Structure formats: structure tokens, C-alpha cells
């Protein structure tokens, strides 16, 4: 049995969401397949179609596609709602923000995925929303910001500080305040956290990351169990055209078939590496919630020290993005828009599935470079 059933994420609800007696790992493999009739393919093929014969439900290539639907069936099943595939995580996030009426108050993290925060700030400056940024790991601070809010946007763990938001407590308080709770579940994946079971209304994914898992797809998704919200998001996708390519949703589902074993290995690697990193003399702080495959470290020597580390690695890849089978790292403050609450020396690590001893050897040698700064 996979270790996920005993995940160290206290919020994981895997056993409670078993469907038809199958665990999430099995549903990732068995779901979203064509009817098992003679000579049917095992996998839903890539359907390249701009239009369909009249009289059916899909109608047109911007409205629906069987390859999208196979992907959506599997993701929706795992999150416990109905999923919609989008062109990117940003397209999915935009669709959710477009649910808001003009001038709506949005409570959002002070530090989170930059693209989403930058879009929110632009909307705020254009007076399309009123943005209130708080530390989402501080539940009383979130509660205090809720008066008059229409939406609470959470990321947990947060990027790149790996703080944890109490989704259940915040979701309950948001409901009382009449606000919709949105959770960007990209870092956790539905194997480690199911926000809808914790009381959230909408889940957003950058499918680009762990779900597709091989650094070769840009795609996104929303999931909700609220039929009205789902219909509005679907209508947004139709009218604003933020549709994914059939090939990308095919690759995303193919990647998701192995999410269980990939995450199992990456999580075990991350746990072992963070244990060793906490004892390395060049590391001043390790940020890891105790589960998942993403962690961050702060190192001696400030920005130059961290730059020396990312320049010195050979197996690890110095790059942005995360969640692939390969281990990657980057100094986050190299991005001018990154929050100034993030230390100059913070390096975010996306731990992959390589041999942990090889990863350690490469990283610890590179960390010695920071000590020379
Ligand atoms: C990458 C990412 C996004 C944006 O997704 P894209 O697929 O790059 O558009 C949103 N949220 C988080 C947490 C991410 O890591």
C-alpha cells in the first residue's frame, strides 16, 4: 500500500474520498478511459477537432473536447468536484477572478504565486477589485480581513515560503462572511490535500507542475462542487477562449497516471534531503511543512551565496517552475516582483525522483560554494 494513506499531511482526506472502493492512486490509473469494448483503445485518444456534427453536446472545439473530458474526469474525481481544463494555471485563475463583480473585496496571501498576485494588483490598481493581502498562515489575520469580502484566495503550502494555511478554519469563517474560498492546490495535489473536502468552494491548479509532471506541458484547471460556479467558469472558458490544446490535456492525463509513484518518491526524497540540509553549515533555515516535494532553504552569504549555489549544481537544474521528475532549484529574489518578505538567499527546491544520494552529493557540494562567499 502506498504511503499516501498515511501521509503526514494532517489535512489529507484520502480514505474518506475513496470512490467505488478504489484508492485515489488506483483511480488515477483507472479513470478517464474509453468504454472497454472490443478493439477500443485503452487511452482516450487525442481528438483534433475544431467542430463536431450537429445535434450533440460538444458542438464546437472551443466548447468541448473528448481529450479534455478524460483529463477532467480524473482530476474532478480526485478533488471531489467537477473539473474544467484551461490553457494554463493563470487562465484558470483568471476565470475564477472573473466570477467577481466590479469592486469586490478579495483577501489574498501577502506572498504566493507571483503571476496571480501581479494580476490581482493590476485589478486593484484599475479599481476592478479591492485587494487585501494578509499572511494566510495567520488565521486570525485572515478572519480580521474578511469583513465585506467576496473571495478569499489561499495557497497552501505557500510559494515559496511553504507556510500552511488552515483551509478548514478559514473556509468556515469565509462562509460565515459570505465569501467564496479558493485554494490553489498546485503544490499539494489532490493526493495530499483535497480543499473541497475541507470546505473550500473552488480549487485551482497549475497542471503544468506536479499533475503533468514532466516539464513539457502548460495547462491549468478549476474544480468545484458548486454547479452554479462550474457553469459560470465553463461559460468564461467558452467566451474568453482560454481553452487548452487537446494534446496538452492528453499529456497531462498521461502524466497523472504516475502521479502516485512520482509523488511518493519525490516526497521521500524531500524528507530525506531536508533532514540532511538542516545539518549543513551553509544552510541557515529549512522551510518544509513535513510533506510534499517542494521545500525552500536560506543559505549563508545572502544573494551572492545563493547565486553561487544555483550556479554550482550539475544534476539539479537552475530554472523556474517546479513539479517535474527532475530536481530543480532557483533563487526566488532573482525575480524583481518577488515579495520582499522572502529572504534574498532563499532557494526554492522542487525535489524530483532521482536517487537521493546523487541529489545530496550534488547539492551539498554546491552549498559548499556558498560558504566561500
Ligand atoms: C505555476 C503556478 C501557477 C500558474 O500556472 P501556469 O500553468 O504557469 O499558468 C499558479 N499557481 C502556482 C502555485 C504555480 O506554481
From TrEMBL:
Cofactor dependence: pyridoxal 5'-phosphate
GO molecular function, one term: pyridoxal phosphate binding
Modified residues (N6-(pyridoxal phosphate)lysine): 209
UniProt KW keywords: Pyridoxal phosphate
InterPro entries, alphabetized: Cys/Met-Metab_PyrdxlP-dep_enz (IPR000277), PyrdxlP-dep_Trfase (IPR015424), PyrdxlP-dep_Trfase_major (IPR015421), PyrdxlP-dep_Trfase_small (IPR015422)
Domain of life: Bacteria
Start and end residues of each stretch annotated as Disordered: 1-43
Any one GO BP annotation for this protein: cysteine biosynthetic process via cystathionine
Enzyme Commission number: 4.4.1.2
Record field: catalytic activity: L-homocysteine + H2O = 2-oxobutanoate + hydrogen sulfide + NH4(+) + H(+); L-methionine + H2O = methanethiol + 2-oxobutanoate + NH4(+)
GO cellular component: cytoplasm
Similarity field: Belongs to the trans-sulfuration enzymes family.
Descriptive protein name: homocysteine desulfhydrase
